[in-house]
Amino acid sequence: MGKNYIESAKLVDKNTLYTPDEALDLVVKTSKAKFDETVELAVRLGVDPRHADQQVRGVVILPNGTGKKVRVLVFAKGDKAKEAEAAGADYVGAEELATKIQSENWFDFDVVVATPDMMGVVGRLGRVLGPKGLMPNPKSGTVTFDVAKALTEIKAGKVEYRVDKTAIIHVPVGKSSFGAEKLNQNFHALMDAIVKAKPASAKGQYIKSVALSSTMGPGIKINPVKVLD
Questions:
Q1: CA 158, CA 60: separation in Å to the nearest integer?
Q2: Is the sign of the CA dihedral 2, 24, 72, 105 positive or negative?
Q3: Residue 62 lies in a domain
């Protein structure tokens, strides 16, 4: 453990379930790295991800963005390619980009958007894009003919949340430099979306546990009951 982590850990009581406000104050105080740390949210849900009807997935635009410059690659042709370029896409192309990804193992992008007519090309990249969470999907708004709208939302701070095999959602809520107030706004926007996404088939306690941490800081547990207040 590094010196900064040890000092930060002293500020956090592992046996305490904090309110969201207390946890967000703490996550800022425990961010002591020389770089601007990302603040991550981890939510364990009372669902069984093995069942299709208990998948929890969606997108939300964070009120204060993610604090990260998002590089967007768009698969499009013709007028839609021009629209993507005008809207601020970092890379725009078609088959040549698919070849570059496959032959050069090129991944200098964070999000992939595709027009529906390009999914035949993009589908061949499923094995390499899928494991990295980069495969475009209609549910997340990344397979669309309205590429300008998709790009605007992504650049404004749209994030996707998705439950993993262990029934946990991991998603960034911003940077430690945002301060507690802006992080709080992002946190509540995310939690509201996750709560609304509760599957009808999920029984019992839905929000099992909630925790925050910065990139190099200790985990801070939040009382799940207080999240719903």
A1: 5
A2: positive
A3: yes
The pTM of the whole model exceeds 0.85: no
End position of a domain, from candidates 135, 155, 175: 155
Do 150 and 46 share a domain, yes or no?
no
Q: Which of 113, 132, 155 is the last residue of a domain?
A: 155
Q: Are residues 149 and 81 in the same domain?
A: yes
Q: Which domain holds residue 207?
A: 12-66+158-227
CA distance 134 to 33: 28
CATH number for the domain spanning 199: value is: 3.30.190.20
Separation in Å, CA 120 to CA 106, 108, 137, 144: 20, 22, 13, 14
> In a structure prediction context, what are the per-residue pLDDT tens digits for the chain, which is 229 residues long?
677 777 777 888 888 999 999 999 999 998 888 899 999 999 999 999 999 999 998 989 999 999 988 999 999 999 999 999 999 999 999 999 999 999 999 999 999 999 999 999 999 999 999 988 899 999 889 999 999 999 999 988 888 899 999 999 999 999 999 999 999 999 999 999 999 999 999 889 999 999 999 998 889 999 999 887 6
